[in-house]
Write a structure and sequence with these properties.
By secondary structure, the chain is mainly β. Helix content is about 5%, strand content about 45%. The chain has one helix at about 40-50; strands at about 15-20, 30, 55, 60-65, 70, 75-85, 100-105, 110-115, 120-125, 125-135, 140-145, 150-155, 155-160, 165, 170-175, 180-190, 195-200, 205-215, 220-225, 230, 235-240, 245, 250. The structure holds alpha-D-galactopyranuronic acid (ADA) and calcium ion (CA) (2 copies).
Length: about 260
């Protein structure tokens, strides 16, 4: 059941959330995305429990060995938690088919998390991500698996062998106040595919990119860039001539050969 279903329970803590139990600072805070329909406290506690890592390494970084699901209508503040993928999710290399650490159902949001490895985060539809740091990107950092509107704010990603954001479905993708260092493409629409997608990248900084900030094979793509700093990266946009692009300073074209 999504947030605030008919049987919505009592909100707790005035702010409709379940706070970290005392003595366990840093536990995620789970809330409804709609304050007028708070989560039942049992549902909130169950999800908070499910989001705890399976193990914690000596370095204090938690390990997920299975994908955690953020339900529709739920927002999670991870409270600065640091997690990485265990080997059951994938080794973080370039093999396809690895599993995500987190799957966001449509209409969910997450904040304040550092993660590394495997296939990062999958979003099934609408999603909001704020203050997320991909400390060591795996196969990629984030994938739009279904159509929707995605916003990523105040976030960063490091050490990506190839892609950071992989957009496999249409809708919109907004990236604002992002920092990336070391990547192939920061934003990539699915190779060889044409579908309508609005991409906006603003007030962000990109360093040490092998190819481009945004690479698309979609003639239907609309790409808007503004206020970015792009250093040691050959192109800001690689896209078909037919794609609508604004704000690019070093645009290129490249056909898909994969
Ligand atoms: C590659 C692959 C796609 C898809 C994508 C991803 O680009 O060709 O089919 O799997 O990776 O989502 O990681
Ligand atoms: Ca891939
Ligand atoms: Ca992937």
């Amino acid at each position: 059941a999504g947030a605030g279903g008919g049987a919505a329970g009592k909100g707790v803590d005035g702010a409709h959330g379940v706070a970290a139990p005392s003595g366990q600072g840093g536990a995620p805070v789970v809330r409804s995305t709609d304050p007028s329909r708070p989560l039942g406290s049992a549902q909130a506690r169950q999800l908070q429990e499910a989001l705890k890592p399976d193990a914690v390494g000596a370095d204090g970084v938690g390990i997920y060995n299975t994908t955690r699901v953020i339900p529709a209508g739920v927002q999670v503040d991870f409270n600065g938690a640091r997690i990485k993928a265990g080997p059951a999710l994938g080794d973080g290399g370039q093999a396809e088919g690895q599993k995500p650490l987190i799957r966001m159902e449509s209409g969910s949001s997450i904040a304040n998390l550092e993660l590394s490895g495997a296939d990062g985060i999958h979003a099934m539809g609408d999603a909001k991500l704020d203050r997320i740091k991909w400390a060591d990107v795996g196969e990629d950092a984030f994938t739009m698996k279904g159509p929707g509107h995605v916003e990523v704010t105040n976030s960063s990603a490091f050490n990506a062998s190839d892609k950071i954001f992989q957009l496999n479905a249409g809708g919109s993708f907004k990236l604002d106040n992002f920092t990336a260092d070391t990547f192939g493409k920061a934003v990539r629409t699915n190779g060889g595919k044409d579908f309508p997608i609005d991409i906006s990248v603003t007030r962000s900084s990109f360093r040490n990119g092998k190819e481009a900030v945004v690479r698309s094979d979609a003639a239907q793509a609309k790409i808007h860039l503004a206020g970015n700093t792009v250093v040691d990266t050959p192109h800001d946009v690689i896209a078909p001539q037919a794609a609508q692009v604004e704000g690019a300073q070093h645009r290129g074209t490249k056909s898909y050969t994969g």
